[in-house]
Automatic annotation (TrEMBL):
It comes from Streptomyces niphimycinicus. InterPro entries: Beta-ketoacyl_synthase (IPR000794), Ketoacyl_synth_C (IPR014031), Ketoacyl_synth_N (IPR014030), PKS_Beta-ketoAc_synthase_dom (IPR020841). The lineage of its organism: Bacteria, Bacillati, Actinomycetota, Actinomycetes, Kitasatosporales. Pfam families: ketoacyl-synt, Ketoacyl-synt_C. The keyword Transferase applies. This is Beta-ketoacyl-[acyl-carrier-protein] synthase family protein. Coiled coil: none annotated.
Length: 617
């Protein structure tokens, strides 16, 4: 059985200042908060940013501080006492790892000293930067500072991470795993992300979604937070719901790419349809579409096509606007800020505008609410997010007075997810220094194990050529190799068929990793940033995304169902299995390919040795 879920608290830190009030005032004005990029070398004249320049927002742990402040605002609005178990769901693409990237030269010097047997000279800040480099540590820091003792998850599905985290929280509340969920999306601009995105053609000279002269996106800093509860629990404690979080969906692009989505919008439209079906909302009820709205030519065309596929002849009657046009592109924080903007529009029965849209691309013919907001009857709304690696993630909302009007869970709407009870394991796979497959693990750790028995990693280099990735991280290769073995063990065909009981659209991929390829990416990019950043190529950044193991599996297997990547530390692989079980139990899929992958690369190993030597061990 599932339960209607409501939003009871919201918090935000953006370029306009701390708090949702500052954000709402900016949405009302409809003016962009972009300003001059500072502190990072500018590439090809692209000197705009949405950086937060508040003097209080300085120091190596500024992102943690922003995330904590956003969460505290949301919790204060939600009020208390909090019922039962509170879970924490964090979406981020970089966490606090900028702190180590900013001191990479010091890190390299310490590594050289350690190798030479000299004193590594690791100060407290550098040591803390190494500890916090794995981005899932952000969830640990937030849990500690907020006093949240329930389950916590860190999600990294690129720019859709915040929506993915929210969907996981919604599932957990419906299934009774937690009684309250705090969802946080947080990211800040750093040199590696700016230059990696710029080299890939993603960064523009300004951020003008749907504009005839748009040429890319503009990155910035931000944090957003939501508090979610079951509607009945909120009513029982006398709380006030702000809006109903009525539905969710995640799909993967057909043949997903590291960054480029398909222009036809079909996979995105499927996500919107599924989210509406999950919410019991018909497309005819949707009056507002909060777009991903990055200002890149392709994505604007994609979302326009998606809206036409979903809403048909009435697509021109659905108000569409881009929150990013006002606050900038905030990576994993954007989906949460956009959800907050959507709730504000629902509450006010008003639609915020798309800033700077003084000349709409003549090829885009829908209602993008240019320049000025307007009153609008909103019966239901959707917020759309896209993430590199092929993710489409959508949330559906109702006004707070309709929060409990969701369909009876015993009588699901047509095409809604059908709950199931029994979950079984049908295939396993493993790739390690012990060899390929579970048998190698048994030989090493079973009752007849030979002491010291090890073998080199499997040869997975063919993946590079097949995927077209020059710098594909070892962790992605290993995760893919294990998943391929598990599929073969389960007797699943590759690729999966488009229809029937093994249809790829009814298969989910959930992968876990502690670091992914992020340390290898920093080791590749940081020397160029200090020497000559113009030598950076797109693949140096894009090929190291921690979500790429899932992308490879989806591409090889023909999977277009839900795709989630967890980066919650050493437990991430086990969490992937648990999240997969939750997806099956919710009826969101029929099959889950769940696993994990990590590689002990040189930066990770050296950081562990430096920290151990500093502690005298």
């Amino acid at each position: 059985m599932s339960f209607p879920v409501v939003i009871t608290g919201m918090g935000a830190v953006t370029v306009f200042g701390d708090g949702c009030t500052a954000l709402f005032e900016a949405l009302r004005k409809g003016e962009s908060g972009l300003h001059e990029l500072r502190g990072i070398a500018v590439a090809r004249g692209k000197n705009r940013s949405a950086q937060i320049e508040d003097p209080r927002r300085t120091g190596p742990w500024r992102l943690s501080d922003m995330a904590v402040d956003a969460a505290r605002e949301a919790l204060a609005q939600a009020g208390g006492p909090a019922p039962g178990v509170t879970g924490l769901y964090v979406g981020t693409t970089g966490g606090d790892n900028r702190a180590l990237e900013d001191r990479w030269e010091d890190f390299l010097a310490a590594r050289r000293a350690l190798a030479a047997g000299a004193d590594p000279q690791v100060d407290d800040e550098l040591a803390e930067a190494m500890v916090r480099f794995p981005i899932g540590v952000l969830a640990d820091v937030l849990a500690h500072r907020l006093g949240i003792e329930g389950p916590r998850y860190a999600v990294t599905n690129a720019c859709a991470s915040g929506t993915t985290a929210t969907a996981m929280a919604l599932l957990a509340l419906r299934q009774g795993t937690v009684d309250r969920a705090v969802v946080v999306g947080a990211d800040h601009l750093k040199a590696t992300s700016y230059w990696g995105a710029e080299r890939a053609g993603f960064v523009g000279h300004d951020l003008r979604p749907f504009h005839a002269d748009r040429d890319g996106s503009v990155l910035g800093d931000g944090a957003g937070a939501l508090v979610l509860e079951r509607a009945a629990d909120t009513a029982a404690r006398g709380g006030t719901p702000l809006a109903g979080l009525a539905g969710w969906a995640i799909t993967c692009d057909d043949n997903p790419h590291a960054i480029i989505p398909p222009e036809d919008g079909a996979s995105n439209a499927e996500a919107v349809r599924l989210a509406l079906a999950d919410a019991g909302i018909s497309p005819e009820e949707v009056d507002y579409f909060n777009a991903h709205g990055t200002g890149t030519p392709l994505i604007d065309r994609l979302e326009t096509a998606s809206a036409r596929l979903v809403f048909g002849d009435r697509a021109g009657q659905v108000a569409i606007s881009s929150t990013k046009s006002i606050v900038g592109h905030l990576a994993a924080a954007s989906p949460i800020i956009e959800a907050i903007a959507t709730v504000y529009c629902l509450t006010e029965q008003w639609v915020h505008p798309t800033a700077k849209l003084d000349r709409i691309d003549p090829a885009l013919t829908l209602d993008y609410v240019p320049l000025r907001g307007r009153p609008q009857r909103i019966r239901a709304a959707v917020s759309n997010s896209l993430g590199g690696g092929g993710t489409n993630a959508v949330l559906a909302f109702r006004p707070q007075d309709c929060a409990q009007a969701a369909p009876d869970p015993l009588e699901p709407a047509p095409d809604a997810f059908e709950p199931v009870a029994d979950v079984v394991v049908t295939g396993t796979g493993a790739v390690s220094r012990l060899g390929d497959g579970p048998d190698a693990l048994e030989a090493a750790y079973g009752p007849n194990a030979a002491p010291g028995r090890t073998r080199p990693y499997s040869v997975l280099d063919h993946i590079d050529a097949a995927a077209g990735y020059q710098y594909l991280s070892r962790s992605a290769q290993l995760g893919f190799g294990a998943a391929a073995q598990a599929m073969a063990d389960a007797g699943l065909p590759v690729p999966l068929p488009a229809e029937g009981p093994l249809a790829g659209r009814r298969v989910a991929v959930v992968m876990g990793t502690a670091v992914g390829g992020l340390s290898a990416m920093a080791e590749t990019l940081c020397p160029h940033l200090s020497a000559d950043p113009t030598r950076i190529t797109p693949s140096m950044s894009l090929d190291h995304g921690p979500q790429l193991a899932a992308t490879l599996v989806c591409r090889a297997a023909g999977v277009t169902g839900p795709m989630v990547t967890l980066i919650s530390g050493p437990a991430a692989g086990l969490q992937a299995v648990e999240v997969g079980r939750a997806l099956l139990a919710a009826g969101a899929c029929d099959i889950v390919i769940a696993g994990g992958g990590d590689a002990g690369d040189a930066p990770t190993r050296d950081a562990a040795r430096l920290l151990a030597s500093r502690q005298g061990r």
